């Protein structure tokens, strides 16, 4: 899908402007004790005209008709791109942890790796870090998330292909 970058987008965000908008699709996953699974996925990247992007990702279990039936995961955060083609991402996960990622931006590809993870004492999982890859391939958002816990070394957890369903316009 072709889209024009709104002239009110902060110049600091231009390297990530291809991400702005709402993306929806389906994700596959695998985790020890859970095995293979399939979920729906929605990702929103938005801007209010400042130097950061807001991020919200929700995955949900699907019913027999492929419709959302109950929440799977939810996280939100902020992306801070820098002039040297790097990016800092600060996320909070509804399962009880926060995370700081550092990464690189190469065209329509962003690669992230955990720098710091902090968990509350009642966190659902003993999450210790991860890596992520976001890319625009033929107009679709491709996303992978590899995770590690105190019991499981870094391994693929979720991977998704999503279509843009709405284009973000700064200030909307």
Number of helices: 0
Q: What form results from the Cα inertia axes?
A: globular
Count the beta strands.
Answer: 10
Q: Structural class, please?
A: mainly beta
Strand order of the largest sheet: 1-2-3-4-5-6-7-8-9-10
Low-pLDDT runs of 5+ residues are none
Percentage of β-strand residues: over 45%
N- to C-terminal distance: 20 Å
Could you explain the architecture of this structure?
A hairpin with a 6-residue loop joins β2 (35-46) and β3. The mean pLDDT is 93. It is built from no helices and ten strands. It is mostly beta strands and 172 residues long. The two termini are 20 Å apart. A ten-stranded antiparallel barrel has the order 1-2-3-4-5-6-7-8-9-10. Helices cover 0% and strands 63% of the residues.
Question: Outline of this structure?
Answer:
With 172 residues, the chain is mostly beta strands. The chain is built from no helices and ten strands. β1 and β2 form a beta hairpin.
Keywords:
single chain; 172 residues; mainly beta; ten-stranded antiparallel beta barrel; 10 strands; 63% strand; globular
Write the layout of secondary structure elements.
Layout: E1 21-31, E2 35-46, E3 53-62, E4 68-81, E5 86-93, E6 97-105, E7 109-119, E8 127-137, E9 140-149, E10 155-166
Antiparallel strand pairs: 1-2, 1-10, 2-3, 3-4, 4-5, 5-6, 6-7, 7-8, 8-9, 9-10
């Amino acid at each position: 899908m072709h889209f024009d970058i709104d002239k009110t987008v902060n110049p600091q965000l231009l390297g990530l402007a291809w991400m702005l908008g709402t993306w929806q699709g389906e994700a596959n996953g695998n985790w020890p004790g859970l095995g293979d699974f399939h979920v729906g996925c929605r990702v929103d990247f938005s801007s209010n005209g400042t130097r950061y992007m807001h991020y919200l990702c929700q995955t949900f279990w699907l019913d027999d008709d492929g419709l959302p039936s109950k929440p799977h995961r939810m996280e939100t955060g902020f992306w801070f791109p820098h002039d040297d083609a790097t990016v800092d991402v600060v996320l909070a996960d509804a399962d009880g942890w926060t995370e700081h990622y550092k990464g690189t931006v190469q065209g329509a590809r962003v690669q992230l790796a955990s720098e710091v993870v902090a968990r509350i004492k009642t966190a659902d999982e003993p999450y210790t870090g991860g890596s992520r890859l976001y890319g625009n391939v033929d107009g679709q958002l491709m996303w992978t998330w590899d995770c590690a816990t105190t019991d499981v070394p870094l391994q693929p957890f979720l991977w998704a292909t999503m279509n843009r369903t709405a284009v973000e316009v700064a200030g909307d």
